[in-house]
Amino acid sequence: MTTPDTHTPPRLPWDSADPYPFYETLRRNADIVWDDTAQAWLILGYHAARTVLTDKSWTSDPRANRAINADTVLNSAVIDANMLFADGPTHHRLRSAVRDVFSRSFIDGLHTGVDAICHDVISAIPAGKPFDFMSQIALPLPIAVIGAWMELDAEQCTSLREHSPAIIRLLGGLTDEDDIASGIAASAALIADLLPAAADRRAHPGDDLLSFLAADPTLSLDEVVITALLVAVAGHETTANLLGAGLIRLLTPSPDGNRPADYIDASDPAVCTELLRLDAPVQATARTATADQTIAGVDIACGEAVLVCIAAANRDPAIYAEPNQFHPGRPGPAPLSFGHGAHYCLGAPLARLETSTALHHILARKPELVGTATWRDTAAIRGPLRAPAVLTQ
């Protein structure tokens, strides 16, 4: 058993721009290692990661983590009504409310609308003029998609974009108390913005996602809004960061000197899968043991936290040959980028659709990188802050 430091808030220990050398160094010792900075066990191996994500004896509720001062930062409806942090019947009820609208067949029906939004956003960028891919394409595009799906007005979309970074820190790791407090405050601001809209959609439903949620009698209005925000923020951030990191990878020459962008078909699902494996937007997700556990020969006590290092598991050399290389269609199990088990990401089909469609339109314009990308400082969520590029056509 380990003893958490109650005076120093836990934080994620890796470099947000390039965490992979850190993972590889740790993996030389074991697939599971204790980290004093995170005050958690880091799960690095694929099989151990998948076991924790699947096993019901681990909880997603951060209040079970004894390293976090739950009394001061976690007594919030944002936690209580959030399916990411719920388990058992509560998680099933909240997830069931949106399961149908995230079925593959339903998402396939959104293709025409997503394609039109991608065309409009990307065609607005003039050829030959350097621009920042993140601020002008990667970030506004998924906001436009989710805004149209929920029928949000321009002010609500702006508020969503402004508050998303703080909320995604809350959703991403739940180890830093300052980030938790900031995320709860940002969530409260967005909830206040959307509660009147949710109440109106419950009384006067339309065909949008917010109306669909509001029509569910099992959900309170708070739960309607928090679920809608989870869908919006997680979907927006995941897609934006995957697009940014994915474009950089596709435009960067591989060891043989060829750029993947010059030979891949962006519409091939295997391309999106391999980008997700190599550049998972969500680097890690937290769980807490609800009973004493033994994973891969390591004893973990009840109340101890683990960080399932998804990005490390996706590059486990015991699972994937040449794990750091881009090989679409490679053999092996699916990467854990969207999680696994009961908390598998409901928005995965939409994120795949947006990413593949956007990359198809972007690569048709023959993009090139024209400077050095800078990366966000969010350790749990990895993506570029800026990505200078130019469209040559």
Automatic annotation (TrEMBL):
**Gene3D superfamilies on file:** Cytochrome P450 (1.10.630.10)
Q: Does the keyword Iron apply?
A: yes
Q: Which UniProt keywords apply?
A: Heme, Iron, Metal-binding, Monooxygenase, Oxidoreductase
PROSITE patterns given for it?
Answer: CYTOCHROME_P450
User: Could you confirm whether the keyword Transport appears in this record?
Assistant: no
Task: Give the highest taxon in the source lineage.
Answer: Bacteria
Question: Which GO terms of the molecular function aspect are on file?
Answer: heme binding; iron ion binding; monooxygenase activity; oxidoreductase activity, acting on paired donors, with incorporation or reduction of molecular oxygen
**PANTHER family recorded:** CYTOCHROME P450 YJIB-RELATED, P450, PUTATIVE (EUROFUNG)-RELATED
| Family per similarity comment | Belongs to the cytochrome P450 family.
- According to UniProt, the name of this protein is Cytochrome P450
